[in-house]
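Hi team,

As requested, here is the filled-out complex form for the iron/sulfur cluster run. I kept the field names the same as last time so the parser does not choke. Let me know if anything looks off before we queue the next batch.

— J.
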Amino acid sequence: TESFLSVRDLRVRFSTEDGTVRAVDGLSFDLARGRTLGVVGESGSGKSVTGLSVLGLHDRRTTEVTGRIVLDGQEVTGAGEKELRRLRGNKAAMVFQDSLTALSPYHTVGEQIAEPYRRHTGASRREARRRAVEMLGRVGIPHPRLRADDYPHQFSGGMRQRAMIAMALVCDPDLLIADEPTTALDVTVQAQILDLLGDLQREFGSAIVLITHDLGVVAETADEVLVMYAGRAVERGSAEQVLRSPRHPYTWGLLSSVPRLDGDVAEDLVPIPGSPPSLLDPPTGCPFHPRCAFTGEVGGTRCADERPEPPHGRGAACHLTADRQRALFVERISDGH
Ligand code: SF4
Ligand code: MG
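And here is what came back:
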């Protein structure tokens, strides 16, 4: 499949008072039109920053982005603010977790959906208003003509999230980056929003980068999965591969928090002890080694000394052989650790 979004050796660094944070450290991936990539990891793994830098939305005063990002044949890295604005209007849009912060409290929901449409298409006020009402209807807001005149605080959390999706899709973007779009919502509403994203993707043909800490969300929606840890890709594969036969010990830990995976796998796994490393001073070798229970399987101090190769295609960044990864995972499930 032709790659619509191509990211090569992305590196993102922030300067802070305490030093330089390497938030993303050499990340590459591709995404085809109409496909969904789930980017999974704990907070601080670099996934949100990746989403922001793909759209050039990072803070340029404090953040340095290197590598190559190409969106529909157009360079994002190195593009000026004007080009980026055009790109974001026509080709790409973002949905954030926190709709209360992302939506302005001072404008009606309808105005906030109409505004980007006017800006990017030059449509009249009346036409943009009509389009906003239409979009509200499409994302499942009842009585859209009336509700378009409400302010965000008059909407429930789930409705605000729908409104934000309407705002993101109003210019018919080819790429939607959704950062934890359902995290703040209860489980039922979460499922509805994920269904909605899937429906809209079929209708609009957009590629979606879905950023989440929740492998359960990925199981519902993603075609492909990229698992991130400490700013790096540690595992990748199809959603089916990563969820059914995960190869990286970190992914096993993430899977333990998925309630049920077709009834069998997940419930016997234990969560990973410890917390993600500081990216001011990341661990040497495999960044996961301070938390990994399998360094002894690799032997010596290799896990602490040698950085594993990032996965190209299906695979995991781990010194264990692919066979050993598979065997250990199966052992782990059947022992019920
Ligand atoms: Fe664990 Fe070593 Fe594999 Fe890293 S390389 S995940 S520390 S076994
Ligand atoms: Mg985040």
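Two things worth flagging: Residues 10 and 299 are 31 Å apart (CA to CA). Residues 248-249, 286, 288-289, 292, 294-295, 298, 303, 308, 318-320 surround iron/sulfur cluster (ligand 1) (CB under 6 Å).

Thanks,
J.
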